[in-house]
Amino acid sequence: MVKRVWRGVLLLAALCMLLTGCTLRMNPKTDPAGPTTLAEPEYTAAEKMNAAPTEAEGADNSKLYVGQWHGMNMVAAGFDERWMFEEDGSFVHGASQMDALNRQPYASGRWEVTGNTLRLTIECRIQLSGGTIESFDGMEYIADPEVVEVILTPPEQESHIMGSFGEDPETGRKTVTIDGVTFYDFGNQTDLFDGYYELMGMPGD
Asked: H-helix or E-strand containing 139?
């Protein structure tokens, strides 16, 4: 009789320990490892090629657009309109060099893409002041201008619409549209912003 009672007590104790262990594993507040968290996704080149921005309000799509984008799939007499979106949230925009009389060739500041909207905080514009208008090979340009770095206080705000990614059939370059205009992935063009670095007195990439 005593053996049966003792055996029953042991079985009851083992059952309680089992239930307690299950409860601890199922309750994240008592789990020393804490709740499981999902790592932030990293996008490969192939995933970027086939990706489309999430249009939901507040969705952060910025990582998809990091890089250098050029308004033509080739380089002609100069660079076309171009964008550089950096991972640290800074950007540089360059106007087309085909318009050699443009006195505001560059703008820079902060950027982010939420949903399919590119939001720019423009903190600085580069202006070319003075100089003389000269001509070379039938093209007019500004000679010997004064480079003025205009700090905008407060910064200017701009919004642009970002489109889906594609691929240029001629060059195989990745493409994206900004306000309906196609831009081409020129991440391999190391001198794309050398003009900006030169005007700013900064070393190029």
From this structure: strand 139-143
Would you say the C-alpha torsion 146, 151, 152, 153 has a positive or negative sign? negative
Asked if residue 14 is part of any domain, the answer here is: no
Predicted local confidence at residue 11, as pLDDT: 39
Instruction: Using CB atoms within 10 Å of the CB of residue 158, give its burial: 0 to 12 exposed, 13 to 18 middle, 19+ buried.
Output: middle
| C-alpha to C-alpha distances, 203 to 40, 68, 157, nearest whole angstrom | 33, 17, 28
Q: Residue 191 carries which DSSP code? A: T
3-state SS, residue 198: helix
Give, for 140, the enclosing helix (H) or strand (E): strand 139-143
Say which DSSP state 65 is in: G
Domain membership flag for residue 6: no
Helix (H) or strand (E) holding 68: strand 67-70
The domain in which residue 191 lies consists of 56-200
Question: Judging by beta carbons within 10 Å of its beta carbon (0-12, 13-18, 19+), is residue 118 exposed, middle or buried?
Answer: buried
* pLDDT in the model for residue 193: 96
Question: Confidence class of residue 61 from pLDDT cuts 50, 70 and 90?
Answer: confident
Instruction: Name the residue among 180, 40, 178 with its Cα closest to residue 119.
Output: 178
- Residue-wise pLDDT for 4-21, tens only, equals 433 443 334 443 443 344
pLDDT of residue 205: 60
